[in-house]
Amino acid sequence: GDEFAKHDEL
Amino acid sequence: MNIFRLAGDLSHLLAIIILLLKIWKTRSCAGISGKSQVLFAIVYLTRYLDLFTTYISLYNSIMKIVFIAASGATLYLMYVKFKATYDHNHDSFRIEFLLIPCVILALIINHDFTVMEILWTFSIYLESVAILPQLFLVSKTGEAESITSHYLFALGSYRALYLLNWIYRYMAESHYDLIAIFAGVVQTILYCDFFYLYITKVLKGKKLQLPA
């Protein structure tokens, strides 16, 4: 999936 | 960071400032839905909890604090200081019909079944429908002050610019987040009829009148 460490958007 | 996301964040910041100025200058929150503002406060509080756990950048942290503070200030002005001007009768959208489905959907469709991730997902879903009480209020009163329509235009533009940001990030960084994109599309679609009215009327100096 589109896993990624952290949400970097506001 | 890219130009679309920066423009989106600035448009979002502009919307929040326009709203605060409108309430402060006119000393009235007529035409503004307190329920939408409550939903936005919930959106920021549930999404920006990572303010204390994850450091992204100074910009990211400052903007989160500004959004939380501004939404708190707006709620204070609406429900305390200028409470008398709050339009209870027309601001009657049942927000539990928005909160409950968002909670359920966040528990079903998410990236990771952890508290932080569920809260982030809930916040993303809630933000996509948080403007409904405001649009409902405008449809019930049949009109909106031009300052309120500028607020709505800036707020609607922010997520529309984020859609461009997501296209850019997919092409440039092959990064995408289907939950944020899906919710962002829904959110922007909800503004479409308002965008049409704004561009065809307000920009021509007319008052925003919804067809009765």
What structural class do you assign from the helix and strand content of chain B?
mainly alpha
Low-confidence stretches of chain A: none
Largest interface: A-B, 9 and 21 residues
Structural class of chain A: little secondary structure
Please give a structural write-up.
The complex is a heterodimer of chains A (10) and B (212). With 10 residues, chain A is low in regular secondary structure. In chain A, 0% of the residues lie in helices and 0% in strands. With 212 residues, chain B is mainly α. Chain B has one domain (3-204). Helices cover 71% and strands 2% of the residues of chain B. In chain B, helix 2 (34-47) packs antiparallel against helix 5 (115-129). The relative contact order of chain B is 0.15. The mean pLDDT of chain B is 96. At the A-B interface, loops of A face helix 1 and helix 3 of B. Chain B: Its main location: endoplasmic reticulum. Chain B: It comes from Hermetia illucens (Black soldier fly). Chain B: InterPro entries: ER_ret_rcpt.
Observed structural traits:
heterodimer; A: little secondary structure; 0% helix; B: 212 residues; mainly alpha; 2% strand; endoplasmic reticulum (chain B)
Topology of this protein?
The complex is a heterodimer of chains A (10) and B (212).
Chain A: no helix or strand
Chain B: H1 3-26, H2 34-47, H3 58-81, H4 96-108, H5 115-129, H6 132-141, E1 143-144, H7 146-173, H8 178-200, E2 208-209
Antiparallel strand pairs in B: 1-2
Brief digest:
Chain B: GO terms for molecular function: ER retention sequence binding. With 10 residues, chain A is mostly loops.
